[in-house]
Design goal:
The complex is a heterodimer of chains A (121) and B (273). Chain A has a five-stranded parallel beta sheet, sandwiched between helices. Chain A has one domain: Rossmann fold. Chain A contains five helices and five strands. Chain A has 121 residues and is of the alpha/beta class. With 273 residues, chain B is α+β, with helices and mostly antiparallel strands. Chain B folds into two domains: 2-91; 98-264, Heat Shock Protein 90 (2-Layer Sandwich). Chain B contains six helices and nine strands; from the N terminus they run ααβαββαββαββββα. In chain B, the strands form three sheets. Chain B has a five-stranded mixed beta sheet with strand order 2-4-5-7-6. Chain B has a two-stranded antiparallel ribbon with strand order 1-3. Classes of the chains: A alpha/beta (121), B alpha+beta (273).
């Protein structure tokens, strides 16, 4: 049986790691939570990750640092950024920088579903 | 005269500071903080409630999961409520420069800065400062800003007055137990008693060009001094706005070293002919 696509949630906020993976599972995907970019990079789940739901502002490596590191390693994992600081100009800049989407908090489940569809195309 | 120029500069500086405090700080910074701080728990609320609905829509419904996400939704709602409380505390930020303050000196300093302006507006200033006032513990600049705000409001309320003296009286006095009161009495238009609570609400104003923030900020400042700011209509025309703050009273009251001669030298806005 084919494995379901893994969506990795990388966010230092514990309440996000608790709630967002549950919603992702309800949308029909497999989900895993990581508390930092470093934790994700050190995990053995990079290869199966089909999309990153990635917080931008994190202590240590930021979301943008992780994006650069993945590029450096030649890994092309679609990235959906998530931020509470953002506006449309931030969103456009991130998309110009290669991100699939940038969801501005608070976002709806349909916006999340659309972003995942785009990422997994 | 050099002294007047200096006083006018100082007045402009304080007025600019007050305007800056009421506008930039309270609106601009609070808006940014509110947006960012509230978006976090709001995102949690929407995510958890969405998950909850989807868990209930399956066949059979995932009641255990739905119950957990509903619980998280409430938690995040409470978190949003705590953000509001925190922002309110920020708005009423604790005075940073607490020191022993003589309220008569506060009144005199603000009067010195405003008497020229009052005179230009035809205001007849009367000053009635009590002797032997206890010192209060507070932020001198903030207490001055509140006093300034009350005086400018009082003067503005009398702009249209033409059929009587534009009398503005500044009074300090004792208030039991061990409190100090500063009152600003005008002979202006007064206010509709039905709106008295609204007077202190942010963005409430009766002025065409007013922001409706001065009194709200003033009350926040006074409350951060464990004090009280209130308004009442006079028996005659106009209104009296006053605030009272606790005196420095640990056992014995320490009294302000007030030189009565200073009081008698207070500048008068208009010499009554």
């Amino acid at each position: 049986m084919q494995q379901r696509a893994l969506i990795a949630v990388v966010d230092d906020d514990e309440s996000v790691r608790e709630s967002l993976p549950d919603l992702v599972r309800e949308l029909g995907y497999e989900a895993g939570g990581f508390s930092s970019a470093e934790e994700f990079l050190a995990s053995d789940r990079i290869a199966e990750t089909k999309c990153l739901l990635l917080d931008i502002a994190m202590p240590g490596m930021t979301g943008l640092d992780l994006q650069r590191e993945l590029t450096r390693r030649g890994l092309q994992i679609p990235i959906v950024f998530i931020t509470a600081h953002g506006d449309d100009s931030v969103r456009r800049r991130l998309q110009a920088g290669g991100a699939v989407e940038c969801l501005l908090k608070p976002f709806s489940d349909t916006a999340l579903l659309e972003a995942l569809h785009t990422a997994l195309q | 005269m050099h002294d007047w120029k200096h006083a006018q500069d100082e007045l402009r500086e304080i007025q600019a500071e007050l305007a800056h405090m009421t506008r930039a700080t309270t609106i601009g910074q609070l808006t940014a903080s509110i947006a960012h701080e509230l978006n976090q728990p709001l995102a949690g609320i929407i995510t958890n409630a969405s998950t909850c609905l989807r868990m209930l829509a399956t066949d059979p419904p995932n009641v255990t999961g739905a119950r957990e996400t509903a619980r998280r939704t409430i938690r995040d709602g409470n978190r949003a409520s705590e953000v509001i409380t925190r922002l309110r505390d920020l708005f009423r930020k604790k005075p940073t420069a607490f020191e022993a303050v003589d309220m008569n000196t506060v009144a005199q300093e603000v009067i010195a800065l405003t008497s020229n302006e009052l005179q230009r507006n035809g205001v007849n200033l009367r000053v009635n400062l009590a002797n032997d006032l206890p010192l209060v513990i507070g932020d001198r600049v903030q207490l001055q800003q509140v006093t300034l705000n009350l005086i400018l409001n009082a003067a503005e309320s009398m702009l249209e007055v033409g059929d009587r003296d534009k009398e503005l009286t500044i009074i300090t006095g004792h208030e039991e137990p061990g409190r100090v009161r500063l009152a600003v009495k005008d002979a202006g238009a007064g206010f509709d008693p039905a709106t008295i609570e609204k007077l202190f609400n942010p963005f409430y104003t009766t002025k065409s060009d007013g922001m409706g923030i001065g009194l709200s900020v003033s009350r926040s400042i006074i409350e951060s001094h464990q004090g009280r700011l209130a308004a009442e209509l006079n028996d005659g025309p106009g209104a009296t706005f006053w605030f009272s703050v606790p005196g420095r009273s640990n056992g014995g009251l320490e009294t302000a070293a007030l030189n009565p001669a200073v009081v008698s030298e207070m500048p008068r806005a208009t010499g009554k002919a």
